[in-house]
């Protein structure tokens, strides 16, 4: 029985570790879908790349607002899970860059060559480098809520951003330092599909500028869930005895 308990405890420890989605050690971002959800210019001008082991976003020409998501749906955020990204952000210019969860990896796009706003079904927590702050924004069925200056930690102290799913319709988003997590917002939506896709968000308005670096996109399972699974296994073994 002792060996079985140790085995189950080991399984709980392994299961509760973060699942690394992407460490950006290659330049292939084909798992992601890029969506231009707001554009004030007549053309797409934001690109994402991972040339040196971290994710970066670049504005290639104009200086108008352009809000873009980069999402994948081979992973999703379940209740109790936390999505995390390690950060070492290059500050400067009007550059918003952050973490996101969404209802789908393939959100509606503004038609290229036209201006428009089709934002819906996602939550983001982001660095707003022009203000030196942490901001958040959520779009749900046309209802927009956000605060670009919700927190103002020293960027040099910030080690990551996170989004936790608290329940079917409730999320917490914030940032991390060596001291732990700091919540910026608890956001309630009405669409239970939000969380089906994970990834990134940007709003870049400085021409020919790059913002980064994001690394080690991970999902951390809820420890309590893993513990209950382990206890369930112990009960089943005891009954079989």
Question: How far apart lie the N and C ends?
Answer: 10 Å
Secondary structure: helix percent: 10-25%
| Unreliable spans | 2-15, 225-241
Strand content: over 45%
Average pLDDT score:
88
Protein model, in words:
- This protein is mainly β and 241 residues long.
- It contains 2 helices and 16 strands.
- Strands 1, 3, 4, 6, 12, 13, 14 and 16 form an 8-stranded antiparallel beta sheet that branches. Strands 8-2-5-15-7-9-10-11 form an 8-stranded antiparallel beta sheet, with no helix packed on it.
- A hairpin with a 5-residue loop joins strand 3 (46-49) and strand 4 (55-59).
- Helix 1 (2-15) runs antiparallel to helix 2.
- The longest helix is centred in the C-terminal third of the chain and has 18 residues, at 223-240.
- The radius of gyration is 19 Å and the shape is globular.
- The model is unreliable at 2-15 and 225-241 (pLDDT under 50).
Keywords:
single chain, 241 residues, mainly beta, eight-stranded antiparallel beta sheet, 46% strand, disordered C terminus
Topology:
Blueprint: H1 2-15, E1 19-22, E2 33-39, E3 46-49, E4 55-59, E5 66-72, E6 82-87, E7 95-102, E8 116-117, E9 122-128, E10 133-140, E11 143-151, E12 160-165, E13 170-177, E14 180-188, E15 197-204, E16 209-220, H2 223-240
Quick overview of this protein structure:
This protein is mainly β and 241 residues long.
């Amino acid at each position: 029985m002792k060996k079985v308990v140790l085995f189950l405890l080991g399984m709980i420890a392994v299961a509760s570790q973060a699942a690394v989605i992407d460490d950006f050690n290659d330049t292939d971002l084909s798992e992601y879908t890029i969506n231009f959800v707001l554009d004030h210019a007549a053309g797409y001008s934001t690109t994402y790349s991972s040339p040196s082991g971290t994710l970066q976003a670049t504005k290639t020409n104009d200086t108008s607002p352009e809000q873009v998501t980069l999402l994948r749906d081979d992973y999703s955020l379940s209740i109790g899970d936390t999505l995390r990204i390690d950060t070492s952000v290059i500050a400067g210019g009007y550059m918003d860059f952050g973490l996101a969860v969404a209802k789908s990896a393939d959100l509606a796009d503004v038609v290229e060559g036209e201006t428009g706003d089709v934002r819906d079904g996602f939550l983001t927590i982001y660095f707003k480098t022009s203000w030196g702050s942490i901001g958040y924004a959520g779009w749900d069925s046309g209802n927009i809520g956000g605060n670009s200056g919700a927190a103002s930690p020293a960027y040099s102290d910030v080690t990551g951003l996170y989004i936790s799913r608290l329940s079917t319709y409730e999320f917490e988003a914030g940032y991390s330092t060596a001291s732990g997590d700091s919540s910026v917002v608890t956001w309630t939506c009405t669409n239970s599909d939000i969380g089906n896709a994970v990834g990134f968000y940007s709003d870049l308005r400085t021409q020919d500028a790059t913002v980064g670096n994001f690394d080690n996109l991970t999902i951390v399972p809820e420890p309590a869930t893993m513990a209950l699974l382990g206890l369930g296994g112990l009960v089943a073994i005891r009954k079989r005895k």
